[in-house]
Design goal:
2 domains; four-stranded antiparallel β-sheet; single chain; 265 residues; alpha+beta; Muramoyl-pentapeptide Carboxypeptidase, domain 2
């Protein structure tokens, strides 16, 4: 996992451009080779610039391509473009919205979901930092630490259920690492599973660029309450017994990464 080079992932939920004609298309298409090529070919021929988007075509299901475009220099209007796309042999349905006001947001999709169909809530790190600071001022940091740890345990129980249903009760290390990539995709940090021993019920993990610890300034003690609770629940499920998780390094203390040691009780 440590060899992977990470890049910022921009969620394609809106586009902005002063004095530009923007449009958002959602195209349902047959799950066949060449479907996206047909669609992008029509866009290119009519001078439509694709700005952002995402595609999902699960095996055995129709595909869907949601994308924002700049149609300022297009040879067709958005409604005419929709008609042309709808006549393609691979296209089942076309929806679109457009705006000449320079700003257009995704109004077609709710709620956002993980691939497994689990709804998610998107919240900015700035908002989380303000929530944490507000709670600290009202009920005290030590109480909030306990609260975040318990929230982490509840979150970890949900993660474990996902691992169990997707990978089985004792997944291989490779599959477990793949599942943990969801942690970085969700924005919590860049995780590395350094060690795991199913027989001894122990593990060691590192989390770089921890979002939770970014809420805090410099600290003399570890601050990963939510993440630590999440790991506690996940590895309790993996090992089939209660575990304790100790954060032995923390970026809030000035360390380069947060590091967690998992041991059975």
């Amino acid at each position: 996992m440590s060899d992977i080079q990470t890049e910022t992932f921009l969620l394609p939920v809106f586009q902005a451009g002063r004095n530009r004609m923007l449009a958002h298309f959602v195209v349902t298409m047959r799950n066949v080779i060449g479907a996206t090529e047909q669609i992008s070919g029509v866009l290119a021929r009519n001078h439509v610039n694709i700005l952002s988007g995402y595609q999902n075509a699960p095996i055995g299901s129709d595909g869907r391509w949601s994308f924002f475009v700049d149609m300022t220099d297009a040879t067709l209007t958005p409604d005419k473009m929709s008609d042309e796309l709808a006549h393609l042999s691979t296209v089942i349905d076309v929806k679109f919205r457009s705006s000449s006001g320079g700003f257009l947001a995704d109004a077609f999709h709710f709620p956002p979901q993980l691939t497994q169909g689990r709804p998610v809530l998107i919240i900015s790190l700035d908002s989380m930092a303000m929530i944490r600071s507000r709670l600290d001022s009202i009920i005290g940091r030590s109480t909030v630490d306990v609260l975040f740890h318990q929230m982490g345990i509840a979150n970890g129980n949900g993660i474990w259920k996902g691992i169990e249903s997707t990978l089985g009760g004792k997944p291989s290390r490779e599959n477990l690492e793949e599942f943990f990539h969801l942690i970085r995709m969700a924005g919590w940090g860049v995780e590395t599973l350094k060690e795991i021993d199913y027989e001894a019920s122990t593990a060691r993990l590192q989390l770089a660029q921890s979002a939770e610890c970014s809420f805090h300034g410099q600290s003399s003690s570890p601050q990963s309450q939510f993440v630590r609770g999440s790991y506690q629940a996940v590895f309790s499920g993996l090992f089939g017994k209660p575990v304790d998780v100790e954060e032995v390094r923390c970026i809030a203390k000035g360390d380069s990464v947060c590091e967690f040691v998992v041991k059975s009780r």
